[in-house]
Amino acid sequence: MLTLLLLPPLALRPPPPPRMLRMATRRPPPFMLARRGKRTAPASPRVMQRSATGVPEIAACHPERYSSLLRGKVAHMEALLAASLAAHPGAALPPAQVFESARLHFRMRASFKFWREGEGLHYVMFNREDARTPQEVVHYPMGSVRMNDLMGALREELLAAPSLAQRVNDARFLTTTTGEALVTLTYNRPIAAPCSRGLMWEAEAAAVAERLGVSIIGRSRNVAIATGAQTVRERLHVEGRGVCEYEQMEGAFTQPNAGVCQSMLAWAYDATRGLDATDLCELYCGNGCFTIALAPNFRRVVATEVSKTSVLLAETNLRHNNISNVRIARLSAEEFAMAYYGKRPFRRLEEAGIFVEDFTRRSTPSSSTLRAPGWTPRAFPYTPHLECGVLLERRSLSMLRGIQNASHALGGVGQ
């Protein structure tokens, strides 16, 4: 038996109700589809992991392995540089100068998340491979002695002061070799508002800061409250140069290993002796760490930095150290190169009393040795801009060879 179902022509079919039409044509936005596709199973609950020693592997030091690890790094560095110099017959690799770090308590700054379990409050860190599992940190052997003393004392103070512990997110410690310390607490709630809660936080924090002998800064969204000084004073003894003093501020970059920083400054100061008739351009000077140490070795110094906070700190540190031959401008390396090539003027340079001239455009015989084949951000400066990392040094050598090859193609410019 054959049954035929006859449908009316499309033109004669009644249109669907408007509500049904909207439901049929509505599609979720693409980012919602991608978000749904990432999670195929419910997320497992996060449980804090505890170590029997109170030090998870992510925060552990291994002093017994330090010497062998250092020898391995030196050998790796020498192999990389030897490979880079292989294309230059007659170039010899000088012996490496190695400066060892302290095995324990070498970090002057660190930050820790807070983790709550019941009424408890714990410092935690996270592994990069497992960013969902908190690792409890009771002791931090990498951190300075002052930092370790403060960690336990601050935790007890927070547990005893509900107005300070409520929704606290993390703690950031900044310490110095002179014993000064600055602690920053960040919150997921407002700590300052036209109500008693903000005033209560400030009063409690000031009392805790006085008992611990530190300055405490509280931060929440668009709010920062300081109970005392917002900076700490560091004193570094640079061999051959003397004592350099630096004001440091939370959030601004500082060298975390003060001992190694002293060694770096001493090495750089010794390496630049005899250059008092020349000028120095330092890109990204930070708070003036190297600027202040090296300034006596040069006639004039121009330093650049992009952070307003770091520029203010650097200018303050110049005054503390009686340095008068340095000018600082808030520019990036790319912007300074644009000013150097005359691509555009910068009022920030004029305000700092800096006048940049592209001496490669002069018709002197030596100018061609510093001329690049064209302006790009990576082409400044033309001499290798080498940092501590030997991988950067090797990359810089490779980049220089590329620039020189391009110069040959342009008819010898740059030779």
UniProtKB/TrEMBL annotation:
Entry's Gene Ontology cellular component terms: cytosol
Annotated positions binding S-adenosyl-L-methionine: Q255, Y284, E305, D358
GO biological process: methylation; tRNA processing
GO molecular function per UniProt: rRNA binding; tRNA (uracil(54)-C5)-methyltransferase activity, S-adenosyl methionine-dependent; tRNA binding
Listed Gene3D superfamilies: 2.40.50.1070, Vaccinia Virus protein VP39
SUPFAM superfamilies: S-adenosyl-L-methionine-dependent methyltransferases
Active site, per annotation: C388 (nucleophile)
Name of the molecule in the record: tRNA(Phe) (4-demethylwyosine(37)-C(7)) aminocarboxypropyltransferase
Organism this protein belongs to: Prymnesium parvum
